Amino acid sequence: MTSQPHDLDAGEVIIDGKLHGWTGRPCPNCQGSGEGAGYNGEWRKCTACAGTGDEHGLLDNQPADMSVYYKTADEWLKTDPYKGITILDPDGWDRKNLDASWAEPITEEEFNFRLSISTASYPKDFFCIITASTNA
Question: Per-residue DSSP letters for the chain?
Fold first, then answer.
């Protein structure tokens, strides 16, 4: 049985390979009230917690599957069957912010999509290996 990648809940994001989200701890800006004083003295939603009163940050409980299912582009390129592929023109990644986009942990499905719209060179026997493994 193959397990699936951790499904992100509302407000969850992956930063540097770690899961961040609503922690259940009081927001340090509003001390958990969800409100703060605006520019004119009126009360408005705290911008740090979007009015929830809950801190958004690194979650204490990290899913065990994070490092298995979420990898950076460099990490995916070091795994089978991607070894030997060189991405020449990374159209699948955010080219305006390439360093951050390249370092973003993504699922294999997302990596395959980004690879498919990029220009890459493949090892000589790459397509023979893929065909053989999919026909097994």
Answer: -PPPPPPPPTT-EEETTEEEEEEEEEPTTTTTSSEEE-TTS-EEE-TTTTTS-EEEEE-SS--TTHHHH-B-HHHHHTSTTTTT-EEEE-TTS-GGGHHHHHHS-B-HHHHHHHHHTSEEE--TTHHHHHHHHH--
Report d(CA 2, CA 127) in Å as an integer. 24
Say whether both 85 and 50 belong to one domain.
no
Count of structural domains, the chain: 2
Per-residue pLDDT reduced to its tens digit, 29-72: 888 888 876 667 677 888 788 888 888 888 888 776 666 778 89
Same domain, 86 and 130: yes
Residue 101 makes CB contacts below 8 A (sequence gap 6+) with 93, 94, 95
pTM of the model: 0.55
